[in-house]
Amino acid sequence: MLELSEIEQEAWALLSAVEGAPNHPFRTVSLATIDTQGHPQTRNLILRAADPAAKRITLHTDIRSAKWVELQANPMVSILGYDADARLQLRFAGKAQLFAPGSAEQEAAWQALSDWTRSTYCGGPPGDDLTQGYVPAPRSEPPTTEESAFGQMRFGVIEITAHVLDWYRHQRGENLRAKFSYDGAEFSGSWVNP
Question: Which H or E run contains 6?
Answer without folding.
Answer: helix 4-16
